[in-house]
Amino acid sequence: MAFDGITTKKIVSELSQTLCEGKINKIYEPNKNEIILGIYANGLNYALNLSISPDSYRINLTTHQKSNPQNAPGFCMLLRKHITGAKIKKIYTIGLERIIYIELECFDELNDLVNKKLIIELMGKHSNIILTNKNNYIIDSLRHLSKDENSNRDILPARIYEIPKNDKLNFESVKTFDEFYKSISIEGTIDKSISSVYTGISMLLIQSIIDEFKLTTEKNTSTLKLVYKYLQDLIKNINTNHVYIKEYKKDFALKYSADEESKALQSNFFIDDFYFNKETNNLFISYKNNLLKLVLTTLSKIKKKIFNINQKIEECKNMDTYRLYGELITANMYLYHEYTSNYISVLNYYNNKQIEIPVDKNKSPSINAKNYYKKYNKLKNALTIVNKQKFDAIQEIDYLESIIYEIDMAKNISEIDEIYSEIMENSLFEKTHLKSKTKITKKQNKNKKENKEYIPIEYKIENFTLLVGKNNVQNDYLTTKFAHSNDIWFHTKDIHGSHAILVTRGETPSMDVLIRCAQIAAYYSKGKMSSNVPVDYTLIKYVKKPSGSKPGFVIYTHNKTINVTPQG
Questions:
Q1: Is 153 helix (H, G, I), strand (E, B) or coil?
Q2: Can you give the residue ranges of every domain in the chain?
Q3: What are the pLDDT digits (tens) for 148-207?
Q4: Are 485 and 539 in contact, with CB atoms under 8 Å apart?
Q5: pTM for this one?
Q6: In angstroms, rounded to a whole number, what is the distance separating the alpha carbons of residues 466 and 476?
C-alpha cells in the first residue's frame, strides 16, 4: 500500500486549494467504512470520499457514484445534524502523518456560529473518522475505541481527542544530509531502513526512486544523497503540479519532475480511479468465486445423487433372479407344504441344474413366492424411475458444467450478474441465495429482465458479422430469436462453449470465412487451449430448442464439422 504520509500531504494540498470556503450540502454513508461529503465550492459540486477500509483507506475527490442504504446509519445522521451547511475553513495535515484535519464553521441549534473539526485518521485497520467540537472534545466517531478493549486511547463521545502516538522521526525536521545519514540503520536495505525510521515514507516510494535512477538498494553515500535530495524536492514542491502520482508495481507512488507539470487535481482523480478499479476488481473476483462455489456445491450434490442412483441400478440387476425364485417356488409348491430349512433345492428348468433358493421357513411357500414377486416388481418399477433420474441428473451436470464455463469466461460484474440471474431462474438453485449478491426485489428483477439488452461479442470477418454469446441466456437469444433461417450456427462438437452466429444476409460465405468463424467458436469454448478442435456448423433453420430444455441446450441436424486451432 502506497498511501503513505507524503501521498496524503499531496492529496490534502489539492483539496485545500479546491475546497476551502466550500459548503457541505450533502452527507452519505454508503457502507460501514465510507463517508461521502457533497461540497459546493467555487461554483462547482464535488464529492469528497473518506474511506477507512483497512485495505483501501484514503481521502480523495471522487466521480464514481455509490449506492446508499435506504435508511442512513447513525453516524451519518449525526454528521448531517452537526455539519450540513458547514463552511470548510481549512484542510491540513501535520508533518507527514496520515491524519487529515478539516476545520469547519457552522451554526448550532441556537443559530450561533461555532467551530468544529472533522478528523480523518488513515492508519490501516485503526483508521477512523472523528468529529470534535471547538474544545477538542469528541462529539462522535465512525468507530468507537476504548482502553478497556486494548486500545491505547479512548475514541468515545465526550472524551478529549488525543493524537495517536508515533515514535518515528519526521523527515521535514531533518536539516542536513549528515543528520539523515546518521539516522539510518546500518542493517537492512535502503528502502526498509528509511521507511522504518521516518514516518509517512513508504518502502514503495523509496523503491520507485531507486528504480527511476537505476540504483541498488545497498547502502552507499551516493545513493543515500540522491534519495535524500529527491525526498527534499518532493516535499518542497508538494503544493505544485511538479509532484504527481504515477503507477508503480501494480500500485502507485509520488513522482517529482522539474520539467513536467500535471493537470489540476491529478493526484486526487488518480487515486479515485485506482481504488475504484481495485474495488471493482475485488468485488468481481469475490462475486465470481462465490457464484462458482455455489455451482460447484450443486454439482457435487448431483454427482452424489448419481452415485446413489448407480447403486440402486446395481441392486436392480438382481430383479430377474427374484422373478426366477418366485417362479420356481410356485412351480415346485406341490413338493412342499411347509419349509423345515432356510433353503430349498429345486430343478431350474431353464438350464436343467439344481438351484438353492433362500426361503423363510416360518412362512408358507405361497407367501415366499409372493414376496419374491413383490421384490421383482418393486425393482422393475424402481429401475424405470432411476434410469429417468439418471438421465435428468446427467442433463443437469451438463448444464452446470456449461455454467462453470460461463463463469470462467466472464470478464466483469455485469456478465457475472447475467449468469446469476440465469441460474436463479433454474429450479436447481431456487432456494439458494448468494451472500455477496446485492438483493434485488421481484419488481426490480422483473423490470431488469424486461429492459435487458443483450450485447454479444462481435467480430467483423470480410463482409460478414459473427456474433458470439457470453452465456446460456445470450446463446438462446442469438440462436432462437435473433438469427434468421439462413444464418450459420457454430458450436464446438461435444465441448461446452458459446453459440456463434454468422449473419449472412442471404450471401454465401467462403470456406476461409467459415474456418475463421470456427476458430472463434473454438476460442470461446472449453477447448480454447487445445488444437485440432472439432466445430460443428449448420444453418439456423436446422437448429431446434426442445420444449422445456435448459438454457443453452439445442439439437441440430444437417451439420458439417471443421477441425481448427482456436483463435480469438
A1: coil
A2: 8-165, 171-264, 302-451, 457-564
A3: 877 889 999 999 999 998 889 999 999 999 999 989 876 778 889 999 999 999 999 999
A4: yes
A5: 0.75
A6: 16
